């Protein structure tokens, strides 16, 4: 018998039950229960189709079931073309605010490894008397659920593989469609008030992508490969017994694209960005509390690490200082003074403890990015491999990077002026930010050639400036060397005079 026939049998049974309910008061209760149990047994015995129900709220009606949401997303993506009656819902924090899913009592067919399965959306009103047609809100007596039906011979395929596949794909689509967020830490004074939290967020809508990022192509591909490997590395990290995190250090002069690279990484990985402003963090305990609240699939960013705090070379000193302070007997009169001095006492060791510590393994899948303009100023302990796994230099604009910018800003891939620019770029240090600024048309009627000529002029001016700077530097060096030489000559002369005069 086909599933359709079984469905019709179901309707027939419902009619029987309905008729039976009308006449139920003529049956004594013990007989009624027995008949009900027999009817159920009989149907189960002959019906080869199994049904699994996924309720919207499980247990307490406080939290929507994650499985229900994932199934809804999966079915919306796979069924909106097939279902005839659809329901439109506004979904918060999604790139597609209006989500279409199949309407109540609608049924669609899915296929998995050649096996057919049926999904239906239903709702059950447990207290029909309380139905209020004028209410804006769903009745609290309404219970929604998805029902999955399949033939019993596919029981293990469905329970072991299909449901897992649906939930994983549903969650994956949710992640893809969600809007990224940029979080910044709140000062601790506001952490515990009404509706206050440690992080505030806004929607993250930075357009930067790896495609629009101007840098050496090989370097770019290397970073992309590293990111992909990290994203797929859950099992690998578990196998080698390392927390699923990766540290990047981006360094280079201002305007070379460090912040742009962070945005491109966030867009590529589809991770939220947690921009940690260290100067707003009082001490290591606060730092720990903030970091504990960062979830999985997050990028934790500390920009300009050399300027945020005096982290450079302070590791030992910081520790010793902390120990000293612990040993000092506390003078009650000095308590207020101490509290006043407590502003921003995050230490390098506190930060390193987090990066290495066990709580960085809670939640997993996190990328930590430090940026700096002066890599040479940083304490080697902070940037050693294993902590900052990848050091990426963002350098001055090379010809390849220029070509990306020309494509972004002017939509050209080649031009007779390109070789002139290539030569000048080889002789001058100019940041991609400056190149971009010069390439941008200043008015609507400025054509490609005018923009390229503007850039050439800027490059020539910069070349002259750098040449003049270099000449001054060389002159100063020469003068210094000469004056040192003069002092030495003088000393030698005095020594000879003293010898002549009999002094030794
Ligand atoms: N490599 C790049 N690719 C594309 N655009 C870039 C690049 N570098 C700079 N830009 C452009 O210049 C602007 C400034 O760059 P960005 O803020 O990323 O530099 P930065 O290295 O973070 O500088 P800072 O050290 O001052 O923070 C960006 O908005 C972007 O438009
Ligand atoms: Mg920056």
UniProtKB/TrEMBL annotation:
Cofactor dependency: Mg(2+)
Any Pfam family: AAA_assoc
Keyword tags: ATP-binding, Hydrolase, Magnesium, Nucleotide-binding
Ranges where the AAA+ ATPase domain occurs: 244-398
Gene Ontology terms, MF aspect: ATP binding; hydrolase activity
Bias type Basic and acidic residues, positions: 327-342
InterPro entries: AAA+_ATPase, AAA_N_dom, At3g28540-like_C, ATPase_AAA_core, ATPase_AAA_CS, Mitochondrial_chaperone_BCS1, P-loop_NTPase
Hydrolase recorded as keyword: yes
Residue span of region Disordered: 314-343, 463-504
Catalyses which reaction(s): ATP + H2O = ADP + phosphate + H(+)
Superkingdom to which the source organism belongs: Eukaryota
Alphabetical GO biological process terms: response to stress
Family: Belongs to the AAA ATPase family. BCS1 subfamily.
Listed name of the protein: AAA+ ATPase domain-containing protein
Source species: Flemingia macrophylla
């Amino acid at each position: 018998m086909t599933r359709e026939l079984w469905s019709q049998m179901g309707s027939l049974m419902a009619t029987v039950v309905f008729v039976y309910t009308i006449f139920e008061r003529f049956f004594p209760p013990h007989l009624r229960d027995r008949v009900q149990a027999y009817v159920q047994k009989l149907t189960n015995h002959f019906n080869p189709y199994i049904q699994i129900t996924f309720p919207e709220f499980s247990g307490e009606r406080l939290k929507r079931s994650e499985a229900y949401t994932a199934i809804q997303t999966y079915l919306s993506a796979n069924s909106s073309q097939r279902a005839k009656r659809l329901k439109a819902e506004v979904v918060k924090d999604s790139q597609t605010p209006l989500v279409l899913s199949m309407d109540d009592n609608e049924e669609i067919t899915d296929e998995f490894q050649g096996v057919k399965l049926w999904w239906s959306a239903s709702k059950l009103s447990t207290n029909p008397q309380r139905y209020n047609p004028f209410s804006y809100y769903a009745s609290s007596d309404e219970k929604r659920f998805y029902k999955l039906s399949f033939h019993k011979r596919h029981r293990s395929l469905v329970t072991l593989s299909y449901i897992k596949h649906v939930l994983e794909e549903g969650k994956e689509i949710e992640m893809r469609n969600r809007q990224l967020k940029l979080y910044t830490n709140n000062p601790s004074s506001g952490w515990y008030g009404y509706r206050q939290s440690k992080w505030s967020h806004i929607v993250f809508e930075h357009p930067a992508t790896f495609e629009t990022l101007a840098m050496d192509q090989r370097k770019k591909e290397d970073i992309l490969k590293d990111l992909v490997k990290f994203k797929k590395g859950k099992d690998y990290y578990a196998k080698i017994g390392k927390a699923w995190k990766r540290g990047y250090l981006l360094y280079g002069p201002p305007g070379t694209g460090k912040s742009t690279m962070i945005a491109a990484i966030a867009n590529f990985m589809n991770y939220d960005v947690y921009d940690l402003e260290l100067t707003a963090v009082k001490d290591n305990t606060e730092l720990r509390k903030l970091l504990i609240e960062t979830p999985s699939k997050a990028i934790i960013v500390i920009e300009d690490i050399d300027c945020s705090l005096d982290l450079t070379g302070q590791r030992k000193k910081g520790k010793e200082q902390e120990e000293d302070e612990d040993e000092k007997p506390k003078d009650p009169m000095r308590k207020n003074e101490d509290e006043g001095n407590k502003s921003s006492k995050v230490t390098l060791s506190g930060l390193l403890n987090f990066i290495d510590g066990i709580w960085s393994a809670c939640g997993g899948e996190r990328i930590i990015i430090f940026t700096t303009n002066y890599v040479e100023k940083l304490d080697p302990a902070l940037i050693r491999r294993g902590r900052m796994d990848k050091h990426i230099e963002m350098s001055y604009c090379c010809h390849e990077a220029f070509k990306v910018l020309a494509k972004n800003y002017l939509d050209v891939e080649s031009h007779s002026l390109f070789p002139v620019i290539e030569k000048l770029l080889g002789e001058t240090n100019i940041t991609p930010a400056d190149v971009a600024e010069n390439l941008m048309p200043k008015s609507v009627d400025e054509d490609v050639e005018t923009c390229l000529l503007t850039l050439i002029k800027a490059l020539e001016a910069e070349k002259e400036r750098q040449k003049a700077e270099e000449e001054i530097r060389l002159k100063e060096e020469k003068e210094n060397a000469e004056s040192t030489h003069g002092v030495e000559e003088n000393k030698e002369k005095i020594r000879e005079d003293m010898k002549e005069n009999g002094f030794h």
